[in-house]
């Protein structure tokens, strides 16, 4: 079976690597504006561009990589990505029981504080022993230049892969992901251990596994206090 390695001209950084983190996904395809499900959610490693499912038949001889969407951010399954590049020290996340890697850093409302483990590029809090929150933050292009400068082999960063792993046949019955809205109940995003604790409501002395507590875990504390009020006849002060 044929194995491929996509390396740029002169042995430099491959064009697909820069294109993967720079391309726009889940936007309408200009060539298929009138078609349903025309979002660009496939990346052609041969053409270094994003395409939609209607474009895929024209690229049937090229290796194709599926890009997924999670809460307005582009992700790729770790199983797919690590067949192409070195993903060491990039923190994976679990979504719908599958490990994924973010292509770009996610926006942060405010920079992280403290001396915990953070992304070396964007300062997002990470779990140990990871150093990057996304593929873009790892700056693989700089690593390629560094390896070439030292006269070393790029095989430690860029991997050869089987054509069957990225064949067109995987996309013939593809259903476009439409998880652009709120987090689905079945989707879980792994966060650093300290932030998991912050999502839980404060204890109110009752049973910790009550259904009311579970339903209110993401609501403000004022809602929790209202939900835990006891209902009954008002207590009046005795007549003087």
UniProtKB/TrEMBL annotation:
Keywords: Metal-binding, Zinc, Zinc-finger
Chain segments carrying region Disordered: 191-217
Originating species: Musa troglodytarum
A Pfam family per the record: PLATZ
MF term (GO), any: zinc ion binding
Protein name per UniProt: PLATZ transcription factor
Highest taxon in the source lineage: Eukaryota
Residue ranges constituting the B box-type domain according to the UniProt record: 29-67
Residues forming coiled coils: none
């Amino acid at each position: 079976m044929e194995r491929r390695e996509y390396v740029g001209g002169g042995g430099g950084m491959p064009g697909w690597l820069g294109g993967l983190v720079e391309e726009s996904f889940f936007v309408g395809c200009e060539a298929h504006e009138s078609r349903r499900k025309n979002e660009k959610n496939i990346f052609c490693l041969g053409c270094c561009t994003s395409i939609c499912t209607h474009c895929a038949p024209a690229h049937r001889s090229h290796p194709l990589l599926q890009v997924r969407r999670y809460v307005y951010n582009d992700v790729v399954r770790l199983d797919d990505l690590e067949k192409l590049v070195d993903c060491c020290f990039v923190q994976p996340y679990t979504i719908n029981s599958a490990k994924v890697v973010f292509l770009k850093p996610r926006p942060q409302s405010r920079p992280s504080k403290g001396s915990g483990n953070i992304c070396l590029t964007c300062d997002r809090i990470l779990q140990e022993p990871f150093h990057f929150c996304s593929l873009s933050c790892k700056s693989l292009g700089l690593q390629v230049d560094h390896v070439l400068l030292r006269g070393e082999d790029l095989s430690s960063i860029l991997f050869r892969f089987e054509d069957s792993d990225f064949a067109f046949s995987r996309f013939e019955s593809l259903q476009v992901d439409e998880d652009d809205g709120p987090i689905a109940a079945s989707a879980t995003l792994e966060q650093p251990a300290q932030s998991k604790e912050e999502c839980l409501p404060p204890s109110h002395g009752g049973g910790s596994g009550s259904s009311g507590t579970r339903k209110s875990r993401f609501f403000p504390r004022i809602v929790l206090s209202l939900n835990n009020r006891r209902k009954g006849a008002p207590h009046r002060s005795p007549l003087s």
